[in-house]
């Protein structure tokens, strides 16, 4: 028998995590602009790439459904990517989109283009508060110090974006362990 699904991360408001967070990590975790462009510039000469890990319709985890106000069995559009610098994963991200707001948006065609670069082009984009966890990504084996999530809205379109920052990024950028 397998171990079953990994347990849901325990999310806390950003401010609650601040005392345990170094100033260097705070710069990354508390930023509200596009992570895609921050990573690309932090990587300098290294090539930034979105590696598509999985994209499908499926059931969100319980913590995701609660954050989106979705009934627990309701399917949503799920997308998992690794944000890589020179093929090294720095962040793994999972996005959950309720189907109600999806029509008209051809997100299945995004492929390895960043969801963030599309999102941040929307003039009426709203971003909810950031929440943070030190728990591991339930959908990936790589470990890291921190993860965050927030809800983006653009008209009827909503997406819960969860970003798990990995140890590889910490060592490449010589960031503190937490
Ligand atoms: C929300 C952003 O988009 C990033 C790109 C993603 C993707 O392509 O699936 C997913 C999450 C984010 O890390 C961002 O750049 O800030």
UniProtKB/TrEMBL annotation:
It catalyses: chorismate = 4-hydroxybenzoate + pyruvate. InterPro entries: Chorismate--pyruvate_lyase, Chorismate_lyase_/UTRA_dom_sf. One of its GO terms (cellular component) is cytosol. GO terms for biological process: pyruvate biosynthetic process; ubiquinone biosynthetic process. It is found in: Cytoplasm. Removes the pyruvyl group from chorismate, with concomitant aromatization of the ring, to provide 4-hydroxybenzoate (4HB) for the ubiquinone pathway. Belongs to the UbiC family. This is Probable chorismate pyruvate-lyase. It comes from Halomonas daqiaonensis.
């Amino acid at each position: 028998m397998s171990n079953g699904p990994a347990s849901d991360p325990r999310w806390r408001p950003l401010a609650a995590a601040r005392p345990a967070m170094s100033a260097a990590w705070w710069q990354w975790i508390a930023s509200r602009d596009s992570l895609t462009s921050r990573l690309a510039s932090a990587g300098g000469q290294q090539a930034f790439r979105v590696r598509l890990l999985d994209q499908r319709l499926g059931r969100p985890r319980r913590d995701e459904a609660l954050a989106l106000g979705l009934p627990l069995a309701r399917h949503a559009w799920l997308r998992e990517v690794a944000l890589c610098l020179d093929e090294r994963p720095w962040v793994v991200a999972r996005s959950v989109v309720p189907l109600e707001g999806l029509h008209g948006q051809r997100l299945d065609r995004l492929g390895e283009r960043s969801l963030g670069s599309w999102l941040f082009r929307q003039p009426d984009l709203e971003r909810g508060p950031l929440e943070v966890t030190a728990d591991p990504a339930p959908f990936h084996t790589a470990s890291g110090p921190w993860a965050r999530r927030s809800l983006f809205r653009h008209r009827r379109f909503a997406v819960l974006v969860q970003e798990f920052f990995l140890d590889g990024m910490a060592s490449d950028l010589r960031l503190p362990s937490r």
